[in-house]
Amino acid sequence: MANSRPSTIKEDALDSLRLCQRDSENVIETLTSVTLDFIDYNVDPSRIKQMESAMLTQALVSSRVERYIEALEMVKNDILQEQEQFNPASRFNEYLRDVESLSEEDMKSHPIYLKYMGQLQTMREEVGVYSAKDGNNEGFTILTNQRAFICPITQVTIKQPVKNRKCGHNYEESAVREMIRFKHRDNKRVRCPHVGCEHEDMHDSDLEPDRVLQHLIEQSEQKK
Predict the structure, then answer these.
(1) By C-alpha distance, which of 16, 12, 13, 34 is closest to 24?
(2) Of 117, 144, 176, 193, which has the fewest Cβ atoms less than 10 A away?
(3) What backbone torsions phi and psi does residue 152 show, to the nearest 5 degrees?
(4) Mean pLDDT of the chain
(5) How many beta carbons lie within 10 A of that of residue 41, not counting itself?
């Protein structure tokens, strides 16, 4: 390692951090899926609290990794831009001077945690509504309104649901992205295909995976 060029060392470090970032995203996905299962099957609330605490910890890890990546990228850019020599390690530490002060309490306002808690709230509402309809206290059974699972584009059950951040409607991911690409190719605006929706300017960036709907669809399929 001592003979490696600094640029190579930095690239190796960045590659390792990006790999760590992907691993963190997988952990977040797993924590979310497990917690949704816990809510679905009416597991002891203390277990759900443990999962929420674990998500705070993971959000902190993810936040720090993001900061490390940003700091390395900035040092890399400084090396290319600045004429005068400087100590890369000192500059790196300077960019990270406040990162150790981050705490799990700070993570309660982090987008990762806020999104996670939003998904849990949505799941609680869905389970509460549909369990009441089914007269079942063991958690969600089968949605009485199967239209919630039907893509307005394909008219079949959604397999990979995405939600429109702007209007809240759901679609089959491949179908809606193809629709957006097709319309934008002809320089046309894209209207949400849900009947009655007034959102008239859809973009790929408006879409995000809907873990709650994915979970409900999977559970419904298992219970058929």
Answers:
(1) 16
(2) 144
(3) -70, -10
(4) 84
(5) 12
